[in-house]
Automatic annotation (TrEMBL):
NCBIfam families: PRK08162.1. This is 4-coumarate--CoA ligase. Residues 22-406 form the AMP-dependent synthetase/ligase domain. Residues 456-536 form the AMP-binding enzyme C-terminal domain. Gene3D superfamilies: 3.30.300.30, N-terminal domain of ligase-like. InterPro entries: AMP-bd_C, AMP-bd_C_sf, AMP-binding_CS, AMP-dep_synth/lig_dom, ANL_N_sf. Belongs to the ATP-dependent AMP-binding enzyme family. It comes from the Eukaryota. Keywords: Ligase.
Length: 577
């Protein structure tokens, strides 16, 4: 054995780019992309990507240069997931809801050489470039080349420079053969964290990590050949949890949509017989609450992969009732999207529906290609017992974990300890080895020395028939240090009235369903909760508001809610959302 070379002719770098080449050779005539009236086949997609890659090279794009994109889920966004790395460059998909200042900051930080902008985002991009120019002291080498992506179905003619995306495709060489990836650890994409807990950081994925994650998710979700995949999850979010590459791996059809509305989701499911979609749990509410004219009946089950935030067990049941079959995953930008999947076991099929929903609400077990997942005491790095009770930090190891944060060695080294990536999430491991998240470490509420999981409390609140959205954060408390404060958006009753639900109703409901120390000491009703573009509730905003509440205890069970002057200002800000 020892005489054989460590790796010889069999050494080929792992990269998801091979999925496109394979789709072209075996699924050439199958539909690759549908976007309103536009259709492409896999052979056309392959050719368009080769053309685009060759055009990028002729624009002087070099290995490891960053190419940024600000666009919704349109065909061009999909194509760039292959074309940009085929040119040796690194794809940076920007969050389409960022404002000009943030876009400018990320363009500057990433040193993007080319900036693709969908025609709808031209005003934001124009302002971002103005800010970038001002900041770069008019140094043109720091300003990316801008290319507008016009609507492929009905071109608008909007421009922000000389070139348009389709022109670049036409100019490109259809026979271009991309250089083979030599090192699978080379960067393939750069994804900025959404900044729920801190400033956005630039997470760098490798070809190897992206390849392995894609395979894991295709397997973990049991995605067979020829799926019809609806793009309800933004492609800018962790490269669409790797399904940008994954749909090519299965020779599937990508159904692109510009807007994630109930109408567009139901309409496209019905029109194209969608079999799979991914979304944050927040989309469940959009689908469940859709008005009759927005709905289409789901005639065969649609597989839904959800994650990014805890899906309340009560919503899981409602989704299944509508015809969606939900699989639950957990992950984060730094782990190339999902790192755990709640793999379903056949023996659970015979359990009552609510027990099934509770099992499914757990975050699950490691995806196949991750080396290890654990929950540890972060000081001693000792694993917690598998008792479903002892909390610790969720830690991950394996090739799908990011290479590091771009230009931030300090944050990169802080993110790892003893070879483990520290997620910043707090969880438990159940006796069957399934992991359940209890909170982000920053969100745990410590009341009188007792840890209260906001996730647990929220899942009870979602069980209340009138609760539409719930978020619980810590609020200062004179006696307990911190106590839970619940922010709720409620749904209307049959008469279209919302304000008949009171704080006392909610507190009484919680007292029935929770240990008393966990019951929120204050309930605040808002029109809707503040969210990031990826559907995460922005708890830092709610925490800031809760800090203005001063709760003092009078008797053991009664509280006085006093409010400081800042409070009205914050409530006003929230009601404008
Ligand atoms: P950001 O950290 O900037 O919000 P991410 O998209 O990387 O951006 O968010 C990852 C975080 O989302 C995880 O650390 C975790 O707190 C939360 N999360 C992801 N999936 C789940 C899930 N299935 N259940 C509960 N929380 C989740």
């Amino acid at each position: 054995m020892d005489q054989l070379p460590k790796c010889g002719a069999n050494h080929v770098a792992l990269t998801p780019l091979t999925f496109l080449k394979r789709a072209n050779s075996v699924y050439a005539t199958r539909t690759s992309i549908i976007y309103e009236n536009t259709r492409f086949t896999w052979s056309q997609t392959y050719q368009r990507c080769r053309r685009l890659a060759s055009s990028l090279l002729s624009l002087n794009i070099h290995k490891n240069n960053v190419v940024s994109v600000l666009a919704p889920n349109i065909p061009a966004m999909y194509e760039m997931h292959f074309a940009v790395p085929m040119a040796g460059a690194v794809l940076n998909t920007l969050n389409a809801r960022l404002d000009a200042k943030n876009v400018a900051t990320l363009l500057r930080h990433s040193e993007a050489k080319v900036f693709f902008v969908d025609y709808q985002y031209v005003p934001v991009a124009r302002e971002a470039l103005r800010l970038l120019m001002a900041h770069s002291q008019q140094n043109p080498s720091l300003i990316p080349l801008v290319i507008v992506i016009d609507d492929i179905d009905s071109p608008t003619g909007v421009r922000l420079g000389e070139l348009e995306y389709e022109q670049l495709i036409q100019m490109g060489d259809p026979k271009f053969v991309p250089a083979e990836i030599q090192d699978e650890w080379d960067p393939i994409s750069l994804n900025y964290t959404s900044g729920t807990t801190s400033e956005p950081k630039g997470v760098v994925y490798s070809h190897r990590g992206a390849y392995l994650s894609t395979l894991s998710l295709v397997l973990g979700w049991q995605m067979g050949v020829e799926p019809v995949y609806l793009w309800s999850l933004p492609m800018f979010h962790c490269n669409g949890w790797t399904f940008t590459w994954g749909v090519a791996a299965r020779g599937g059809t990508n159904v692109c949509i510009r807007n994630t509305t109930a109408y567009d989701i139901y309409r496209n499911i019905a029109a194209h017989k969608v079999t799979h979609l991914c979304c944050a749990p927040i989309i469940f509410n959009i689908l469940i609450e859709a008005k009759p004219h927005e709905r289409h009946e789901i005639t065969s089950p649609v597989q839904v992969l959800t994650g990014g935030a805890p899906p309340p067990a009560s919503l899981l049941g409602k989704m299944e009732f509508l015809g969606f079959h939900v699989t639950h995953a957990y992950g984060l930008t730094e782990a190339t999207g999902p790192a755990l999947v709640c793999e379903w076991q056949a023996k659970w099929n015979s359990l009552p529906r609510d027990s099934q929903a509770r099992l499914k609400a757990r975050q699950g077990i490691s995806i196949l290609t991750l080396a290890d997942v654990d929950v540890k005491n972060i000081e001693s790095m000792e694993s917690v017992p598998h008792d479903g009770k002892t909390m610790g930090e969720i830690v991950l190891r394996g090739s799908s974990i990011m290479k590091g944060y771009l230009k931030d060695p300090e944050a990169t080294s802080k993110a790892f300890k003893d070879g483990w990536f520290i997620t910043g999430d707090v969880g438990v491991i159940h006796t069957d080895g399934y992991l359940e998240i209890k909170d982000r470490s920053k969100d745990v509420i410590i009341s009188g020395g007792e840890n209260i999981s906001s996730v647990e409390l929220e899942s009870v609140l979602y069980g209340h028939p009138r609760v539409l959205e719930a978020a619980v954060v810590a609020m200062p408390h004179t006696r307990w240090g911190e106590s839970p404060c619940a922010f709720l958006a409620v749904r209307e009753n049959e008469c279209g009235v919302k304000d008949d639900v009171t704080e006392a109703d909610i507190i009484a409901y919680c007292r029935k369903n929770l240990p008393h120390f966990m019951v929120p000491k204050k309930v605040e009703f808002v029109a809707q909760l503040p969210k990031t573009s990826t559907g995460k509730i922005q708890k830092f905003q709610l925490r800031a508001l809760a800090k203005t509440f001063q709760v003092t205890e009078t008797k053991s069970t009664e509280v006085n809610n006093q409010v400081t002057p800042d409070h009205d200002h914050h409530i006003l800000a929230l009601s404008r959302l």
